Amino acid sequence: MAPDTFGHHLRGLARASARRVLPDPALAWLRGRLSRPMVEVVAADGSTQARLEWEMMPDTDAVWGGAEGWSHASIAARQVAKWDAFLAAIAPPLPIGRSHEAAPDAELDVSAHNTAMSFAYVLGRVLAEAAPAAPSILDWGGGIGHYYRYARALFPDSRFDYVIKDFAELCEAGAARNQGARFVATDETALAGRHDLVFASSSLHYARDVFGLLDRLAAASFRYLFVTRTPFVEQSEDFVVVQRPHRYGYMTEYAGWFLNRGKFEKFLAGRGLALEREFMLAERPHVPNAPEQCRYLGLLFRRQSG
Q1: Tens digit of pLDDT for each residue in 188-230?
Q2: Fewer Cβ atoms within 10 Å of its own Cβ: the N or the C terminal residue of the chain?
Q3: Taking a C-beta distance cutoff of 8 angstroms, is the pair 279, 297 a contact?
Q4: E strands of 170-272, at which residues?
Q5: CATH of 57-303, one of 1.10.10.60, 3.40.50.720, 3.40.50.150, 3.30.365.10
């Protein structure tokens, strides 16, 4: 789950306004207040504790295994609860401007529109290059099928084979709502073949062995690999961050990587995939104790001949 982009822009406006009128000590106080959002975490004994929503943590077994993460039952339940509103929000001729993670009554958001249109560009490239055949698409971590519905809404007359890999509960909920897609819950099944497009949106960096998974996703792509809604840093080495997404209705927490972009691109270059296009995204969490703040990006890689 990425940060609330409306909140991000609101905080940016507040900071910009404050620079014009506040003395340095007051500005520092305001910056600290705006950049340290807290959530109430319920412990096993029923007690509550205020914790940072985003927090850098050590790369340890306890951090990675301390909660159910994306397999928590609340995630499938919340996605199902918002499904009908999501479908209504992307029906033509409406703009695709509300994330599937947003509240059903949320305002339209240009950031969500940009994310969907970036995906549309990539899918359009794949469809054009694979024609007249129907391309194969692997959506790694595709939830209950939101990007599949983007694809159907944006290219209603096109044919493609669409495979979604996720946890069993999400696959079960998604299969009941998307008869045209195939849902698989095991890595082995998802990666058994090769695909025109392997696509990971806000999913790759939640794997502890992130480069092991990236290696397998790269091997499964014979044309394009698209990694999007993924947090990158420029100067720091990879480090682990925990998010506690309770305000979205996901009553869990999950660890993930902030990835060094140069290392990431070099790794894929060594596997025959070169950066084809970068996509700008507006998502910007603030992690108070991190050595560097990330940028969420979309990076499209293409298989090189020879």
Answers
A1: 999 999 999 999 999 999 999 999 999 999 999 999 999 999 9
A2: C
A3: yes
A4: 182-184, 195-201, 221-233, 239-243, 254-260
A5: 3.40.50.150
